[in-house]
Design goal:
Elements: E1 2-6, H1 10-21, E2 28-32, H2 35-41, E3 47-53, H3 61-71, E4 77-81, H4 86-94, E5 99-102, H5 111-129, H6 131-134, H7 146-154, H8 162-175, E6 181-184, H9 191-200, E7 209-213, H10 219-227, H11 244-247, E8 252-256, H12 263-275, E9 277-278, E10 287-288, E11 292-297, H13 301-306, H14 312-318, E12 321-324, H15 335-349, E13 356-357, H16 359-367, H17 373-387, E14 393-394, H18 401-404, H19 417-435, H20 440-447, H21 451-461
Parallel strand pairs: 1-2, 1-3, 3-4, 4-5, 6-11, 6-12, 7-8, 8-11, 13-14
Antiparallel strand pairs: 9-10
Helix pairs in contact: 2-3, 8-9, 15-17, 19-20, 20-21
Length: 469
């Protein structure tokens, strides 16, 4: 496997060659001093990655990138830009660059890690498109064996559907690597459970697993929470505080709702992923870290990037190995086993023996849409356990009204249209409130309205105000 270094400065080429050869990956490093030489060298099939400098003597780097993409569309190109040229780097990503590196005093030590990541993404792409590459395409990976599934079940996974078993197969594979993982899925699908499995089933299991919901920390405090601060860094900082990255050193850091991170925090996260070092707030020196980053989101980060709300380069750095957790309505085979699993656990916690579900009850649960997914199902089972008497069999009439029918009223009702609309609106708002833990801000966002508009609707519909804001 050859890595092509393209730069008009011979000293820079020599430095990068030395760094790449010293990385211990056995790469054959080749050099090119101009775009013309680069295009000629890139036609060699052994070349698997290109490090391309933006400033070239004959053709600028973006023009060279376009030509490389035309000649070899699958060849990953890492753009190397000067400090302060992040806009150029983002433009390069839009043109198809696999990643970028910003030149600074110590940027060389980050280059091997970037190259490993882009080569890993290329290998995954080949695996997905070429069944002969590993015997099966990525979307049809061999399912986990019985022993692996048993270990997942011990972690709390209940998976009977093919969709969820495929997810467990991806987790089992990704757990053995240190690549960044982005877990995508609706709220309540179990993304944190997946993140914990990535940690406990991998070589970092004995080291810390640290989780943080980015939406749960005020924007002004999130930077200090993630990267730490030194004593005197700001008013009230009477002692140094290690950040979450430092606490997770050697282990895994899970950042939930990563789409809620502000632009300044996104920039700092990007630098951590590039340089593998952190700089606590108020510190004058950076600290090296070894952290496996797993992020999760219920948003479409590609759409957020296109809208300018999430950095495209950070999106690519996070989404080295994407895992999409399907909503519960798309894996109905899991509903009954999950309900029985929750019933067994919660009945023991409440010290109340329950005989089980009537088959008709399980049928109703399977047919419900579950807008809050697995969390919504668990909450309903907990309510049933609390309401039931010891020894009861849970019948369909014990279920909440919003479970027994997707609509709150029968289509044959003679109620006026205004009343029907009020009941439907009430049911939807109540469902979203439960789904988002009765947080007004999150509920309003999911409904596409402001918090003030939600409050007015709650008052108009006669609903009790939520406990949390």
């Amino acid at each position: 496997m050859a890595i092509l270094v393209v730069d008009d400065d011979p000293e820079t080429r020599a430095t990068l060659e030395q760094v790449l050869r010293g990385a211990g990956d056995g790469w054959d490093v080749r050099q090119a001093a101009s775009a013309k030489q680069a295009l000629a060298a890139a036609t060699e099939p052994e070349v698997e990655c290109v490090l391309l400098d933006y400033r070239m003597p004959d053709v600028d780097g973006l023009a060279c990138l376009r030509e490389l993409r035309r000649l070899r569309p699958d060849l990953p190109v890492v753009m190397v830009t000067g400090s302060g040229s992040e806009a150029v780097a983002v433009e390069a990503m839009k043109l198809g660059a696999a990643d970028y590196v910003v030149k600074h005093a110590t940027y060389g030590h980050a280059v091997p890690g970037v190259v490993r990541e882009v080569l890993g993404r290329r290998a995954l792409a080949r695996l997905a498109s070429d069944p002969a590459a590993r015997g099966a395409p990525l979307r049809e990976l061999r399912p986990p064996d019985a022993a692996t599934l048993a270990r997942f079940e011990a972690d709390g996974f209940v998976a009977r559907s093919p969709a969820m078993i495929r997810v467990l197969g991806l987790i089992a594979r990704a757990a053995q690597s240190s690549v960044n993982v982005l877990i995508e899925g609706e709220s309540g699908t179990g993304k944190e459970l997946c993140a914990r499995a990535l940690h406990t089933h991998g070589p970092r299991a004995a080291r810390p697993f640290v989780a943080q919901n980015c939406a749960a920390v005020p924007e002004a405090l999130l930077e200090s929470e993630l990267f730490g601060h030194v004593r005197g860094a700001f008013t009230g900082a009477d002692r140094s505080h290690p950040g979450l990255f430092e606490q997770a050193d050697g282990g895994t850091l899970f950042l939930d709702e990563i789409g809620e991170a502000s632009s300044p925090v996104q920039v700092k996260l990007l630098r951590v992923l590039q340089e593998r070092e952190i700089r606590p707030v108020g510190a004058t020196a950076a600290r090296r870290i070894d952290v496996r980053l797993v992020a999760a989101t219920n948003r479409d980060l590609r759409h957020e990037s296109d809208a300018g709300r999430f950095r495209l380069d950070l999106f690519h750095r996070l989404r080295v190995f994407p895992i999409v957790v399907p909503p519960l309505r798309e894996r109905r085979e899991d509903v009954a086993p999950l309900a029985e699993h929750f019933l067994d656990r919660l009945a023991r916690e409440e010290k109340k023996p329950i005989a089980g579900f009537h088959p008709d009850t399980l049928a109703v649960l399977r047919d419900h849409a579950w807008p809050g997914n697995v969390r919504d199902l668990e909450n309903e089972v907990h309510r049933l356990v609390v309401c039931a008497e010891p020894g009861d069999v849970i019948l369909p009439n014990a279920l909440a009204p919003w479970i027994t029918s997707d609509l709150p009223v029968s289509p044959a009702t003679s109620a006026p249209l205004r009343e029907l609309m009020r009941q439907v609106e009430t049911a939807i708002i109540q469902s979203r409130l439960r789904e988002h833990g009765y947080r007004r801000a999150a509920t309003a966002r999911s409904l596409g309205i402001t918090r003030e508009a939600l409050w007015m609707k709650l008052r108009a519909l006669g609903l009790a105000p939520p406990d949390a804001t």
